[in-house]
């Protein structure tokens, strides 16, 4: 058995208040519906709190003001159970042990600078003059291009590619298959067809950013593509060249952002949103799933639909659309009665 913790020790880590047995020992985590006597779980509302009455969970993080039938479960009351639980998971499911050092199959070209306690996995290639900060881990099969800069405490997953022009600040996590600083999609029209415009800008990823598997962030054409600190990007997202993504944004799976768009701080883009190029989405705005954004969105507004409009406007339009068959039927009946049938 791994490490165990008492309910009291758990509560102290998240500034919680214990109701029940503070010495109850906990050895793992589980959902509320299947938690046993040695498990820590959490509930956020009455719907999930009902599970606690049906099983014998060891302890549960619950909101400070939620009425709960504990059934012997020790309760730990906190302001935000989900947030508290997320901080406690690593106690019971620790990250894999890192083994700092450079694997024998890794290839490092001249001029590479590695910080203290760096971990370089099997079959990694690091180009000339690249710099990797302290305690950063580079997963198997990743390619770090010449001159790339990676900060401290980063986790570069397996099979990632960071090409020349990539700058990654501290505490960034890149999941498997992320591509940074790949060429943007830029062409000029020539007499013999499209002519590629060389992409020579950088791709700068701020601190505390997480980028999901197989997502791509293009380098700038002349200037830089930037992603602000604290932003979270899901799997299969594409960010085009010269885009400026603000801080603390949430960009969900399969979003596509065309070149030179500006996404300001705190924006939420739901799954499969598409942004046309050279647009601005204002700070704190949100865009609903599968929306197609063709115009600027003011700060703080919620838009949805295709083409995207303010959410209430889109709901009204959608409602009218589904009424069209009935309206057509009624018009047809009216025309028959009036003797003026349409074509």
Would you give an account of this structure?
This protein has 343 residues and is an alpha/beta fold. It has two domains: 5-92, MurE/MurF, N-terminal domain (Udp-n-acetylmuramoylalanyl-d-glutamate--2,6- Diaminopimelate Ligase, Chain: A, domain 1); 102-310, 3 Solenoid (UDP N-Acetylglucosamine Acyltransferase, domain 1). It contains four helices and 40 strands. It has a twelve-stranded mixed sheet with strand order 8-11-14-17-20-25-28-31-34-37-39-40. A ten-stranded parallel sheet has the order 9-12-15-18-21-26-29-32-35-38, with no helix packed on it. Strand 39 and strand 40 form a beta hairpin. The protein is flat, with a radius of gyration of 26 Å. The protein starts with a strand and ends in a 5-residue tail after the last helix. The mean pLDDT is 94.
Total domain units: 2
Q: Let me know the CATH homologous superfamily of the largest domain.
A: Hexapeptide repeat proteins
| CATH fold group of the largest domain | UDP N-Acetylglucosamine Acyltransferase, domain 1
Instruction: Measure the end-to-end span.
Output: 79 Å
> Total number of β-strand segments?
40
Q: Class by helix and strand content?
A: alpha/beta
Specify Rg, calculated over alpha carbons. Answer: 26 Å
Strand % is 25-35%
Largest sheet: 12 strands, mixed
Shape: flat
Q: Name the helicity range.
A: 10-25%
Poorly predicted tracts of residues: none
Mean pLDDT: 94
CATH architecture of the largest domain: 3 Solenoid
- Assign the CATH class of the largest domain: Mainly Beta
Side by side, the strands of the main sheet go 8-11-14-17-20-25-28-31-34-37-39-40
* Count, helices: 4
């Amino acid at each position: 058995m791994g490490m165990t913790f008492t309910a009291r020790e758990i509560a102290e880590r998240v500034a919680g208040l214990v109701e029940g047995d503070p010495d109850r020992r906990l050895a793992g985590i589980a959902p509320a519906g299947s938690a046993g006597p040695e498990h820590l779980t959490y509930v956020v509302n009455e719907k999930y709190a009902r599970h606690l009455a049906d099983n014998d969970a060891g302890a549960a993080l619950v909101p400070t003001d939620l009425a709960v039938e504990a059934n012997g479960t020790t309760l730990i009351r906190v302001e935000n159970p989900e947030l508290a639980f997320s901080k406690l998971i690593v106690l019971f499911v620790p990250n894999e042990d890192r083994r700092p050092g450079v694997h024998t199959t890794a290839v490092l070209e001249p001029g590479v600078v590695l910080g203290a306690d760096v971990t370089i996995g099997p079959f990694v290639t690091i180009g000339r003059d690249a710099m990797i900060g302290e305690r950063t881990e580079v997963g198997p099969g990743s390619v770090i291009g010449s001159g790339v800069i990676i900060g401290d405490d980063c986790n570069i997953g397996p099979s990632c590619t960071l090409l020349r022009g990539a700058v990654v600040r501290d505490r960034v996590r890149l999941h498997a298959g992320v591509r940074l600083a790949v060429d943007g999609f830029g062409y000029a029209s020539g007499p013999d067809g499209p002519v590629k415009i060389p992409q020579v800008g950088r791709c700068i990823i701020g601190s505390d950013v997480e980028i999901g598997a197989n997502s791509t962030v293009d380098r700038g054409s002349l200037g830089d593509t930037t992603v602000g600190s604290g932003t979270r990007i899901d799997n299969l997202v594409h960010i085009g060249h010269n885009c400026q993504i603000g801080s603390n944004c949430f960009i969900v799976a399969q979003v596509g952002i065309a070149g030179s768009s500006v996404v300001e701080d705190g924006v939420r883009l739901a799954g499969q949103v598409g942004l046309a190029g050279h647009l601005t989405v204002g700070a704190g705005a949100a865009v609903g799933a599968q929306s197609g954004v063709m115009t600027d969105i003011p700060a703080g507004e919620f838009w949805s639909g295709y083409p995207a409009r303010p959410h209430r406007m889109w709901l009204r339009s959608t409602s009218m659309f589904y009424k069209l068959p009935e309206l057509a039927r009624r018009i047809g009946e009216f025309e028959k009665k009036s003797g003026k049938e349409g074509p």
